[in-house]
Structure formats: C-alpha cells, structure tokens
Amino acid sequence: MLLLLQGPRGAGKTTLLRRELPGHTYIALDDQRDRARARAEPERFLSSLRGAAIVDDAHRAPELMAYLQLSPAPNPLVLA
Q: Which of 80, 72, 63, 73 is nearest to 28 (CA)?
C-alpha cells in the first residue's frame, strides 16, 4: 500500500500523520543522510524500513518517487 499526502508547507501534514499513525516509523528526508540514501539507492532505502513507514519531505528524493512508480513498496508506505 502506498499513500501520498500533499499540501502546502505548514498545513499540518506531518502533525496529522504522526498523530494518526503512531506505530509507523517516521523518516524525514530533510535529514541529509537519509535523503542521500533514498536518492542513491531507493530499493535498498525502502527495504531497510521495518514495517509501515512515513517518509516526510519525499519531494527531496525524486529518485525514490521514480522508483516507486515502477516497483511496489515492500511495506505500507505514506509519503508526505
């Protein structure tokens, strides 16, 4: 399952997702190390996530988005 939540900066996307999906692993791609991993090796980045995950600032890794268009996410995934 893949869900994409879009909206303007400051609209409350992250707050909503973290409040409503507390069991999901949270990864923010504003972190330079996580962003570099997601861009360089999207498949490996996704397979390293254990269980359901929220990937925030997904627009910062266009390679990850391109990969997900061709391959299913291995776990439930929410992109914001």
A: 80
Instruction: Give the model's pLDDT for residue 72.
Output: 84
Q: What is the pLDDT of residues 35-68, one digit of tens each?
A: 999 999 999 999 999 899 999 999 999 999 999 9
Average pLDDT (1-12) is 91
CA distance 77 to 16: 15
The beta-carbon contacts of 7-15 under 8 Å, at least 24 apart in sequence, are 13/56, 13/80, 14/56, 14/80
Task: Please enumerate in sequence order all residues whose Cβ is within 8 A of that of 69, keeping only pairs 6 or more positions apart, or say none.
Answer: none
Residues, the chain, total? 80
Do residues 56 and 32 touch, judged by C-beta distance below 8 A? no
